[in-house]
Design a protein that fits this description.
Strand order of the largest sheet: 6-7-3-2-1-8
Low-confidence stretches: 14-19
Radius of gyration: 31 Å
Mean pLDDT: 84
Largest sheet: 6 strands, antiparallel
Shape: elongated
Order of helices and strands: EHEEHEEHEEHEHHHHHHH
Number of domains: 3
Structural class: alpha+beta
Helix content: 40-55%
Number of helices: 11
Strand content: 5-15%
């Protein structure tokens, strides 16, 4: 059975790495009895069965045992916990999709959840600190799993051999480098004040964004709704060739849904009057108000 391409084929349950016996960043550990005993003495919470394993996130250069091969330069070895992806996925989805009730989300937000999962699978979810681990029997995972880089445990380097003895696999070089980048991006960022730390700054940030996107003195761009784009394309052609922003904006204003709606209602009333029905001003006013309040009618108008 071939090992998955995200893992080092020379370091798995079937045998130690032929290249290097030392621990490396990206080593995957099983919750062996020896490792559980170590956790019991220091971090008993992490002996829970929900933790499928652990991943070494300390830099490889600090784990190499040089010289007499007895000690590495790191005083502590940091391990990130590994959980089943399904067990924690709802918590991650809630970061991008509001939860209506436990486990219930809006269908309109599903695309946001899909984009999140794509970022996770492609190892691009740096903000949440998630590293995807594909199921592989040779590594010891039977389901999609996540290393939660923000949930880590530090052990003294004196436990080096116990940690190494729990190793069941290792990320391939390419993915170990990606893990190192994610860990660095997560924990080595420079702390600066944020524009959203106070209400005054939030308002200033909003104003700055508005000024940049919609400059008043020298308009550089306009924002068109779908119905306005359709109207402008009918007037100018598909790419608005040769038109100024002012001309496009003027044409776009002619295609506002409220203008369509009012024109449609006015036309409808004209047709009704032409039928010669015995309707007074009050009746026509009620008809006009009914059309104006009808959401289905408004939606058909927007589709124009």
């Amino acid at each position: 059975m071939a090992i998955h391409w995200t893992y080092d084929k020379d370091c798995n349950k079937s045998g130690e790495s032929s290249a290097d016996d030392d621990l490396q960043q990206g080593d995957i550990l099983a919750p062996t009895e020896e490792l559980r005993e170590l956790f019991s003495a220091v971090h008993n919470h992490f002996t829970d069965d929900k933790y499928l394993g652990f991943m070494v996130i300390t830099q490889t250069c600090d784990l190499v045992r040089r010289g007499n091969k007895e000690k590495c330069s790191a005083r502590y070895i940091n391990l990130a916990v590994i959980r089943s992806m399904q067990d924690v996925l709802n918590d991650q989805i809630k970061t991008v999709c509001p939860e209506i009730a436990p486990g219930c989300f809006r269908a309109a937000d599903k695309n946001e959840a899909e984009q999140l999962i794509k970022r996770i699978l492609n190892q691009n979810e740096s903000k949440l600190g998630l590293f995807y681990l594909h199921p592989d029997a040779l590594i010891g995972f039977g389901e999609e799993s996540l290393a939660l880089l923000r949930v880590s445990v530090a052990f003294r380097a004196t436990h080096y051999d116990t940690i190494r003895g729990a190793r069941t696999g290792r990320l391939s070089t390419e993915f170990a480098h990606k893990l190192g980048w994610l860990v660095g991006n997560l924990f080595a960022r420079v702390a600066t004040q944020d524009w959203t730390e106070s209400s005054d700054r939030k308002n200033t940030l909003k104003q700055n964004c508005s000024q940049l996107l919609d400059p008043v003195d020298t308009p550089e761009r306009i924002w068109l709704e779908k119905y306005q784009i359709k109207g402008c394309r009918r007037a100018f052609g598909s790419d608005f060739t040769g038109q100024t922003l002012e001309a496009i904006a003027e044409e776009a204003r002619r295609h506002h849904p409220q203008d369509f709606k009012k024109a449609a209602i006015d036309r409808g009333l004209s047709v009704i009057r032409a039928l010669g029905l015995d309707l007074g001003a009050e009746d026509l006013a009620r008809i006009e108000a009914a059309f104006a309040a009808d959401q289905a009618f408004a939606s058909y108008i927007r589709k124009k």
